Each structure stands twice: as C-alpha cells, then as structure tokens.
Amino acid sequence: MKRTLSLVLMCICLQQFVTAQQYVPQYFAKQEMEQDLVFLHQKLANVHPKFLNKDFAKEWQEKYDLLFGHLSDSISKVESFVALSKLLSEVDDDHTALYFPYSTRINYMKNGGLSMPFSIRVRNNKLYINEYFAEQAVNGIAVAELLSINSIDSKQLLHDVRVLAGNKNGTSGDKSVERLFAMCYWMLYGETKQYELKIAGFNSAVLCKAVTNDKYFQLKNKFYPPKEEKSFSLQFSENNEFACLKIASFYDTEKLASFLSHAFDSIQENKCGKLIIDVSNNPGGRSSSVDSLLNYLTSKPYSQYSSISVRPSLELKNKYKVSKPDFYKLIADIPVDSLYRITDSLLIQIPRKTNSPFTGKVFVLVNGRSNSAAATFAGAVKRYHLGQIIGEPTGGTIKYYGDFLAFTLPCSGLKFVVSAKEFVQYGNRKLTEGVLPDFILAAQNAELSEIIFLLKNTINN
Questions:
Q1: Structural domain boundaries enclosing 162
Q2: Cβ neighbours of residue 59 closer than 8 Å, sequence gap 6 or more
Q3: Among candidate residues 285, 308, 443, the one with its CA nearest the CA of residue 374
Q4: pLDDT tens across 6-43, in order?
Q5: pTM over 0.85
Q6: Do 210 and 168 belong together in one domain?
Q7: Which of 2, 118, 317, 405 is most exposed, with minimal Cβ within 10 Å?
Q8: Tail specific protease domain: from which residue to which, for each copy (predicted)?
C-alpha cells in the first residue's frame, strides 16, 4: 500500500514538474482586445502628425474598422501583437510601433520552447544564411541565399517580418529584422519542430531540427564564439595619412563625447589631415550625440534639420509641461489639431569650443543602414559643406516622424510609441529618399586600407 501511494505521489510530482515546464500562452477576451484597439486609435489620432491629413486618417480608419470587426472571441498576447503591428505598419513610420514582448518569448523558450539553429542576413531585399549551427553541419550553407523556409517564399518572409519590425516598406530596419527573425517567425507561424530550407545552388532542401534554449546557446557559442562589439573606434592608416572614426551608434551621448575628446586629441597629435567618419550600419540615436561630433568639424552656427513641426497634442503638452517647460510655453495655447513649425532661430546650434577641432578633409561613409541620427549627421555635413559623403544612399527618408511618446495598452499591457513631430533633414531634394552620397562607394564591411583604396580610386576618376 505504501509502495503504491509513493508511486502515485511520484507521478503527481512528475506531472506537476512537466506542467511547469510547458509554455502556457496568455489569452485575452474579445472585449479586452476591443479596449486596447480603442486606446491605440485614440493615441494615434491625438498625437501623430499624419492623422491631421483627413484622407490618410480615413484610409487608416478603414483598416482599423476591418480589424475591429473581425476579432476572435479569444486572442493570445502573441496574436494581439501581430495584429496590432500590422495595423501600426499602415502608418508607415519607423518610429511608431509596438515594443516587442520579449518576456513572452523568454517565457516560451525557458519552458520547453524551440528555435531555429541558424540566423539570417538581409541584403538587397533578399535573405541569406548568416550563421548555421545545427548539430549536423552542411558545407557551403553559410552566406548562401535562402529561397524559402517550410515552403514559405523568402520574399513573403521578409515582408512579414519587416511589418513586425516596424519597417514595412523599406530597408532601414533590416538590422532589427536580422536580430529578431527567429522571434518573428515564431510569432507569425507558430512553433516549428523542423525547418526545411530551400537554398540557392543546392539540389535538395536542407532539413534541420529546431533546438531548445540551452542547446541553441551551446551550439551557437561552439561554432560562433561571441565577439566584442565596440560602439566607437579610431584607426590610423600607414604614415597617418588617414584617420578613421567608426561610430556604431549615436545612442550614448556621454560615452561618445568622452571618446571623441580623446580621439580628436590623438588625430591632432598624429598630424592627420584626412578623416573618414564611418557611420555605415549606424541605426541612429540622439541628436545631442550628433551635435557632439559636429562640434569638432565646424565653428559656425548650423542646424541639423531644414524644419521641425510639432503636433501639440494634450499628451505632448502634459509631458512637456514637466520635462520642457520653456518649450511648453510656446505650444500651450496652440490648437491640438494643428502643426506648430519651430522657428529657424530655435533650430540653430552654436558649436561648443573644443580643444582639438579638425580642419582637414572629411569623408563620411554611409550605406542603406545609416538611419535616423546617422543620416541626419550626413545630411548636415553635406548641407554645410563640412565634408564629402561617400558610400550608398542612407536608409530612411529626408522627411520622417519621430520624438515619440510612450503608452501602454490597458488590457494586454503591450507598450507602444507614437511620433509627435515631423522632421525634414538635409541631403536630398526628394523627401521620400535618403541622403544621397557625393560619391558612390561599395565598401560594405571593408577594412580601412580597402576603404582608402576605393576612396582614392573613386575620387580620382
């Protein structure tokens, strides 16, 4: 009897253990989803400048009504995120989007979830295998073009993942697409136990099994040990003819300012007369970081933008009343259904005096992944003739929206941001394109010596 009782108790404990290891999705009722949608609609209509355009607002309203009228009686948090991301993508603004529910993905992976044992890269609107770390190696698969996964065409995959990454129509967010690809695939197509990969140049499909969280990191670290990625770096060419500043992002103003102080001191000490500022693959960051770099390139007043217009919503006024009281006074009495254009005098920046200003030749290296503040920096350099832009057209567009306000949906708890300002930067007369380079230069991930060779060859020709 005792033996039987012990076995029963053991089975109960094992069952509880197994249950604890299973991922249980969080679901919401239709009424809760409706409340979230109404809240989302309200904040978009109140805050975003594009909703002042009646034609745009009407077109977006139709898509909203379509989603609202076809809600399921029960919807998971992941399904909610996918549906709302698709709706937000119709605003066509990289800075208006939902934050990814990382905690949901982590919960899934830590409770028996599965992931793909490979990563991807995006180049010229195509998918490529970046890292492949399945238990069974496949020769020649790394850097090969990926045509489909489980019969889903790569073009469709890229489109769907771009929508979730908040970059429906362009390439400016493809760095996020690469980083979040496995998570987005799971959200879009559900749990996958095996991947059938159709690869360009392969006679047959490559089959690989999905892996658990522990196995994923074990295999990835085995075949692709983590590499330290520096936010900023300084290199010199032979004979110190060229210096090269690599700025990976403009997010941390304080760290960048400290780095630039030492870097420009070193450039001056080495009597270097030519400077390459590499902001390729730079996703952007803070305008104050751009100012800290421009301080070393000019002593004359400048502006980062051709114009900035603000939608003075109640939400923005309430925020600025506390955080920016001086600016709040300018917009306090302006109607919420209008755009307030910031005067030119408020856009002008007076450079801060530095110990080691650079007066030599400047070349700014950009590509299609130079976004937001990185593109703004390139545009300002071009506008004020501070140097020459080399590389490829930047990501994003000359006219864009940003300086967002953050909100939380009342039922699902999903967080989202909405742009409150319209920016027009320099660098191209066409507002729907990026900053144009003065010289086209294909220097993707090239070494400094190769960049210098290509630069000299391009300019001389």
A1: 112-223
A2: none
A3: 285
A4: 444 444 443 444 444 688 999 999 999 999 999 999 99
A5: yes
A6: yes
A7: 2
A8: 212-442
